[in-house]
Automatic annotation (TrEMBL):
It is a multi-pass membrane protein. GO terms for biological process: sensory perception of sound. The lineage of its organism: Eukaryota, Metazoa, Ecdysozoa, Arthropoda, Hexapoda. Belongs to the clarin family. It comes from Coptotermes formosanus. One of its GO terms (cellular component) is membrane. It is found in: Membrane. This is Clarin-3. Coiled coil: none annotated. InterPro entries: Clarin.
Amino acid sequence: MRTDRKFLLYGLWVAAIACLAGALLFAGLSAVFAVVNTATTPIGTATGVPGLYLWNSLAMLFNLCAVGLWAVQFYQKLQQNVLSQEDRDNQWSSANMAHYGYSFWFVVGAVVVHFFNITAIYIGTHRTREKKTPQPVIEEKSNGAIMLY
């Protein structure tokens, strides 16, 4: 694949794989810190709510980069011919028969999911909440006393 320049642009392919790996890493960090935030109230920025924004935004950015790189790869090389060198030597062609597969649309879906996750974090953390004030204990004659009949 590295030597066949008519099949793929090797640098774009490697960059797309690296972007997907980075997106998976940041999505995993986001999931771990989301669980940490539900169990405790973290003090650090990277583990708290600002960190959730950061990890989800980075995962979304890396997924967008992977989508962009693969779209460039598709329009520059994959749309013309996706056959091996032996098949091309036999004058076979797959020109204009390629299309985006499920894996491409799953990455686009991941972008949408991260966007909704960032929106949910915003809605959940910026909603005004009423603080409950403790009710004073009313002293009554029967308060604390045992009544026997």
